[in-house]
Specification:
322 residues; Rossmann fold; UDP-galactose 4-epimerase, domain 1; 2 domains; 7-stranded parallel beta sheet; 3-stranded mixed beta sheet; 39% helix; globular; binds nicotinamide-adenine-dinucleotide
Amino acid sequence: MKILVVGGAGYIGSHFVLEASRAGHNVVVFDDLSSGFKNNIDTEIDFFEGSTLSNKNLSEVMSSSSFDVAVYLAAYKAAGESMSDPVKYASNNIIGGLNFLKACVEYSVKKVIFSSSAAVYGNPLYSPIDELHSLSPINFYGYTKKVIEENLKWYSNLKNIRYASLRYFNAAGYDSDKKSLNKENNPQNLIPLVMEVAEGSRELLQVYGNDYSTLDGTGVRDYIHVTDLAQGHLASIDYLFQNDNNLTINLGTGRGHSVFEIIKMTEAISNRKINFKVSKRRAGDPDVVIASSEKAKQLINWSPSNSDLSNIIDSTWEIYNR
Ligand SMILES: NC(=O)c1ccc[n+]([C@@H]2O[C@H](COP(=O)([O-])OP(=O)(O)OC[C@H]3O[C@@H](n4cnc5c(N)ncnc54)[C@H](O)[C@@H]3O)[C@@H](O)[C@H]2O)c1
């Protein structure tokens, strides 16, 4: 299959490109390298440098081939920054997303895989969160994802596009063959910050709150290995070609790990001490965010096989300890 991967030089995108190539697909990457790296992509893969904010760039790549499916990962992803600079997120994630959809219509790309997020749900009203949970994002980033999901629905009705909205939980880990070269660019999420303390480039980790209703008092999140995410994309592509249906699913493990568990596992694997300081909770941080992955299991026959915490931490430490 000929697959266009928009945002394919980034952390998750490059892992998808690896898995898609291993599965024998013909992949083309389009990326503006704002946070991705060209050397995340094998030199044999066709690469177009360009932005979804340029209709000209999109036309160039879309007209270069006839694509069976486009995977759209390009977006900014820092929830905190989206609250201080919503215009930046509206522009890149919403306008860029609508430009991408326009190009799909113009160039007859009928199948789209969209990187959505658990952030569309907002504060969990129950746990694990299934796909029927209400969509009430509590940050602008989550809102941008909801807007693209809604547009996909309309484009499906009006323009006959079939899509999969994949709501990722916390992406983590690295390819087991160490094919991925780069750390995430300017990460804001827990595991890379813990790694930075372990490698010595960060003095200490701020732990925001130890009075949550969890076993050890720290926040619990669902960490999904990027290779499992990538395989979930491939299974979703198969689904779109086998069914005349759209797909909206969570990609998570159904299990959660606390901040202290991540710290302990990193200490055990890296053999380094993780210095941390407990400070106050951050506004809007829920106690526990865990996915129900039952729908993905049923519809695309997907379940994560790489997402044990030890494997996630081990494969990440391999990259930070190079
Ligand atoms: N990392 C996570 O835990 C997580 C969780 C849920 C959803 N997501 C979503 O998954 C997608 C990929 O995330 P990631 O963690 O790989 O982030 P990333 O920043 O590593 O990857 C994004 C890629 O898109 C590119 N890009 C950004 N804006 C672009 C534009 N306008 N035109 C062309 N390329 C552009 C970047 O250069 C980068 O290579 C994002 O849409 C993100 O919102 C990520």
